[in-house]
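User: For my dataset I need records formatted as: sequence, then structure tokens, nothing else. Please produce one.
Assistant:
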Amino acid sequence: MTEFPVRLDAKPDVTAFFDPATHTISYVVADPATGICAVIDSVLDLDYAAGRITYAHADRMIAFIRAEGLRVDWIIETHVHADHLSAAPYIQACLGGRIGIGAEILTVQDTFGKVFNEGTEFQRDGSQFDRLFQDGETYEVGKIPAFALSTPGHTPACMTHVIGDAAFVGDTIFMPDGGSARADFPGGDAGQLYDSIWRVLSLPDEMRLFMCHDYGPEGREIQWETTVAEEKQRNIHVGQDQSREAFVALRTARDATLAAPRLLLPSLQVNMRAGEIPKDPSGRPMLKVPLRGI
């Protein structure tokens, strides 16, 4: 029995857009009855070395939405991504829609506002977003019922969004052979991540699960869709009732070997602002690089 208002009979159309540069999968989730859709975890293209922003990934999504005659109601971030920049403001400017994220964004803004030495002009109240989702809060995509499920551990603001029979899990869990996401970012916690994963896996076995990332372990083709039943059976980190203690030990040891994501610093600065690029006092777009060891 689940605590959630699940509707397996409500089946959105889900179209995935894979970004090979960041191994991110973005989604257009549409109600076929109304043509209303949500965009989930969009990507802005950044040539970090050249300091150049482009929009090819977002433009593919926009072209698809226009070609299908869809109307954007929601632009949702499952969390403050540390490996890619969000294209949410760009998509909103082109197509409309409301930008939403989990209410714990305030914790992330406070943490990284200090890391990047942001001044008082940087608001730490989540006001850059149109909607701050609380745990269990319901909404709709067209006529399809949806709800937000707090799933912290990777970051404090992580949420899984359940839209009909489809759940968008962000970085809470990966494909079965990928295991789980790291839990060593500020505010992350491996034990909390284990609890969040099993909160997702308490959804009905038939629930479709859609990943935010896939890296093709052992050279397999990129994949992004699985089910609750498959994860419970086959996930290499939590499947077959792996204990919380064993998961924490595994996750902690693995995280200690991982390098920082290539786009960590620009991603956090942009994404904690709902995808807006910060500007220097003259109004020029500018990113900071805090240095250590000096």
